[in-house]
Design brief:
8 strands, alpha/beta, 11 helices, Rossmann fold, eight-stranded mixed β-sheet
Length: 295
């Protein structure tokens, strides 16, 4: 892994594949480090003929954090947003999109396929709309337009976003992470317990930073919806979504696909809000084939 200065911050990133191949930028979601992208997906897309880059968003992992801003009051922010008041935040999703463009600049990449998951899908949507000259295609994975009135996630899944471990030990954090991953998985792809523990331990040990996750959540609230913005997207767009997503129900993905002119959508039965090992080969083929055609 390596670090570059971009858009006024430091961004930790990792790349795979031939530097001469078309670039594919993987943008992760709320509070999620670059290691949440499965290595098999990251490396598999590189084997399909892409220069693949994954990175830590600001305020997560090993990129610059905004700890000086403090822990936000999320319930108060939600109440403000619902009453039409302005929500103050240290940064917005558009700033995170500018970070990603800054990373491409630092790496000397003119254009890339933008592949984003969850909040990362929101960031990728903004890049496709506001930086069309830098975007070869958009792949929005289990994300949303943020349109008011869309179905909300299951209470137990939403509750996990604001919950804390039972204590401060490493094992408490690991158990909390395991519970989260179980809650957001779909019934068609139950996680393997040993693999799940290894995955969670890797991320807990790399960095445990719930304050950054809370500020990510605040940025989503403060940024509003992307309904009108998505109507302006002109790059080839693919929407992928699980039909059992407990955080962002499948109707959220369908809304993105309806808004973007000419967008393709594929939904998967039994898929939740994660990257099941057995589904990764299908995702490599679908994303790789779509981006190849868009090139």
């Amino acid at each position: 892994m390596a670090k570059v200065k971009a858009n006024g911050i430091e961004i930790e990133y990792e790349s795979a594949g031939n530097p001469g191949d078309p670039a594919l930028l993987m943008v992760m979601g709320l509070g999620a480090q670059l290691t949440i992208w499965p290595d098999s997906l990251f490396e598999g897309l590189a084997e399909k003929g892409f220069r693949v880059i994954r990175f830590d968003n600001r305020d997560v992992g090993l990129s610059t954090d905004f700890g000086a801003w403090g822990m936000p009051d999320i319930p108060a922010a939600i109440q403000k947003a619902m009453s039409g008041q302005k929500v103050e935040a240290p940064y917005l999703l558009k700033d995170m999109a500018a970070d990603a463009i800054g990373l491409l600049d630092a790496l000397g990449i003119d254009r890339a396929h933008m592949v984003g998951a969850s909040m990362g899908g929101m960031i990728a949507q903004i890049m496709a709309a506001q930086y069309p000259e830098r975007t070869r295609s958009l792949v929005s994975i289990y994300s949303t337009s943020g349109r008011p009135g869309l179905p909300i996630g299951k209470p137990e899944a939403l509750a996990m976003l604001g919950s804390s471990p039972a204590g401060d030990t490493r094992e408490d954090r690991v158990q909390h992470g395991i519970k989260l991953r179980r809650v957001i998985a779909g019934s068609g792809y139950p996680p393997d317990e040993a693999e799940l523990r290894t995955f969670v331990e890797r991320n807990v040990d790399r960095r445990w930073y719930p304050e950054g996750s809370a500020r990510h959540y605040l940025s989503v609230i403060a940024s509003g919806d992307r309904v009108e913005m998505l109507k302006t997207v002109k790059v080839p767009t693919l929407v992928l979504h699980g039909e059992e997503d407990p955080l962002l129900p499948v109707e959220c993905g369908r809304d993105v696909a309806r808004l973007v002119p000419g967008a393709e959508i594929e939904t998967f039965s039994g898929w939740g809000h994660d990257f099941p090992k057995v589904l990764v080969p299908t995702l490599i083929d679908r994303i790789g084939g779509f981006c190849k055609a868009a090139s």
